[in-house]
TrEMBL record:
Keyword Protein biosynthesis: no
Signal sequence region: 1-20
Family of the protein in this entry: In the N-terminal section; belongs to the leguminous lectin family. Belongs to the leguminous lectin family.
Subcellular location: Cell membrane
Chain segments annotated as transmembrane: 292-316
Protein keywords: ATP-binding, Cell membrane, Kinase, Lectin, Membrane, Nucleotide-binding, Receptor, Serine/threonine-protein kinase, Signal, Transferase, Transmembrane, Transmembrane helix
Topology in membrane: Single-pass type I membrane protein
A family per Pfam: Pkinase
Protein name according to UniProt: non-specific serine/threonine protein kinase
Listed InterPro entries: ConA-like_dom_sf, Kinase-like_dom_sf, L-type_Lectin-RKs, Legume_lectin_dom, Prot_kinase_dom, Protein_kinase_ATP_BS, Ser/Thr_kinase_AS
Annotated binding of ATP, by residue: K378
Amino acid sequence: MASQTLLLLLFLSSLHQIASLETLIYEGFDENSEISREGSSIIKTSHLLKLTNRSTNIVGRAFYKTPFQMLNQTDPQPYAYSFSTNFVFSIVSPNSGSGGFGLAFTIAPSTHFPGAEAGHYLGLFNSTNDGEASNHIFAVEFDTVNGHKGDADSEGNHVGVNTNGMESKITEPAAYIEEGTATVKDDFRMAKVDAVQAWIEYDGEKKTLNVTIAPWELPRPSTPLINNYNLDLSNVMKENMFVGFSASTGQETSSHYLLGWSFAVNGVAPSLNSSNLPNPPPKEEDPSSFPWVQVAVAILSALILSLLCLLIFLACCKRYMDFEVLEDWEKDCPHRFRYKDLKLATQGFEESQLIGVGGFGAVYKGVLPTTGTEVAVKRIVRSPFHGMREFAAEIESLGRLRHKNLVNLQGWCKKKNDLLLVYDFIPNGSLDFVLYNPDNNFVLDWGQRFNILKGISAGLLYLHEEWEQVVIHRDVKTSNILIDGNLSARLGDFGLARLYNHGQASHTTNVVGTIGYIAPELTRTGKASTKTDVYALGVVLLEVVTGKRPLDSDQFFLVEWAIENYHLGQLLEVVDPKLDSVYDAEEVELVLKLGLLCSQHRPDYRPTMKQVTRYLNFDDPLPDTADWGHFGSNSSSRMNSGFLEVTSSLRTVETSGYLSSISMSTKSMDAGR
Ligand SMILES: *[C@@H]1O[C@H](CO)[C@@H](O)[C@H](O)[C@H]1NC(C)=O
Ligand SMILES: *[C@@H]1O[C@H](CO)[C@@H](O)[C@H](O)[C@H]1NC(C)=O
Ligand SMILES: *[C@@H]1O[C@H](CO)[C@@H](O)[C@H](O)[C@H]1NC(C)=O
Ligand SMILES: *[C@@H]1O[C@H](CO)[C@@H](O)[C@H](O)[C@H]1NC(C)=O
Ligand SMILES: *[C@@H]1O[C@H](CO)[C@@H](O)[C@H](O)[C@H]1NC(C)=O
């Protein structure tokens, strides 16, 4: 800390003359420092040079022991040499009152000032010699109180330039000039900041003076506070001058400290490295309030603090108990919800919030406390999944799917054995409910039905072909299609069927889907594809036109029934009687034929979703039935055998029993599964 160096450099400035350039630098002080002290000034073990303590009317001085040559005598007209200094000081004033008096960087012919007074004379002058040219004293004062009455320096907390007396030639309120400006001055109280850094520079040739100050942690401003002030020190300086500091107190008192100091004649004073300086002195406590008030305040704040800590600790415990402990991989899932929020949203999974029940769990309506948005929360109570990490990755991926005809999966959350899936809330319930519920008096007209079918196709097309990877829905059916406020279709539960298989031993792979919508090849191979989705869509197309379920009893099979009517040349006979014959026959015929095309026995005879949407929009004409593979062959025996195969395979699947647990049976409304 107290690294101190004195560099005395001598070098040639011209061929015939020797000029001296002398430099000193102190970064902290100790007993070995070449400093002569007078009055109250002491060097502390903390390497601070303390000029005054808090006694009233005292003076403390510290000067470098050796004088500097400050005047060029070789000239017939002697002139003062250039000099520069940089120092860091600290003023500790009482909490109440402004403190006083001040400290001054001083250049004087002697280190002794007999008869000089404290207070506003700063230990440099007295009332008799104040202002006399014979003093030969130059000083830059840093005061925290008003100077003596009648002075120009009527303002406290200021910087003033003085020669031979206490009447300042120029003063400026202490301020930091903001960088990049020459005029924006941030006033600051020198006694309130930890320490102040000052730079004083005098140009002997141009006879100008600069004084710059800054709170010590701030960089040096490029514009000085006292800038290019014209000052001729030729008559003030003597040949040999001492440089140092004088400080005083008056009725008001402050402690004045010096942390570091450098000085140079005819050169630039070295910069002080703030990391080498001693710590500034601590700001003093107000002595008047010391023993009782402060002790009481300390005890009280300690009590309050410990109470607060206890409360925070309890709150943390509560939080910890409320939440599952997150594994590392869980923290990176943007779609992960907080269990607490979902619990709050559904009023603690309250019965009144229930909107649907199924084999795996229940669906609750909820309002997210954070955003106020309505959601549907599907709660799968005993999670059948094992590989949670893979599951989460899959959910995260599904969570990024966004389409106006999908029930968007907003996120998920797991707590112990509870798995929660959060979906958009869709108000009108499922298409299944709208079509078949006997309590529902509302009948969809043809335009609405056609629009719903187009929406379903657009949603499936997005899943199959328009997203970054192919998503097979695996469970397209009317109870998985929700109807929103605009009577548009929203596909729900996409991709989830695959998730249900996660963690199942591979040799027991279950066929997933819902009876009536399962393509024949799926029952044989167990492999879902985009074509098995198209098959299920074909069934949905027929359902929406006919208003009949895919299988109603052991005797009725919707697809078979439609084909029969087609071959009898009375396809329009199958149209839902609730439509009261009010429909666009061309559209109805298109949808019926497309339903048959999609639900063909062989997957390669079925169109892709791209083609389906083009047919529905009349972009492409439906291919002639003669080109429809075996369906168009008109061989009723082949056709019948094909459908026999389908129906028998349906019965096979029925016995597995697993499927019914996947498709959720709806209670009243079926929103948001
Ligand atoms: C002193 O003044 C003379 C005449 O102006 C000049 O030549 C010389 O360099 C000065 N000496 C120093 C040390 O500046
Ligand atoms: C302040 O310094 C003076 C002079 O060195 C000394 O007499 C006085 O006791 C000191 N006062 C305090 C409060 O330390
Ligand atoms: C003022 O200072 C001068 C010189 O330092 C001294 O001779 C004189 O006695 C002092 N006057 C008083 C009133 O102390
Ligand atoms: C004082 O500061 C100004 C910049 O504001 C600069 O041009 C001038 O050289 C400085 N004078 C001294 C003596 O450093
Ligand atoms: C300041 O001093 C520290 C420690 O001695 C040193 O690491 C650093 O480089 C110095 N900074 C400058 C600008 O000299």
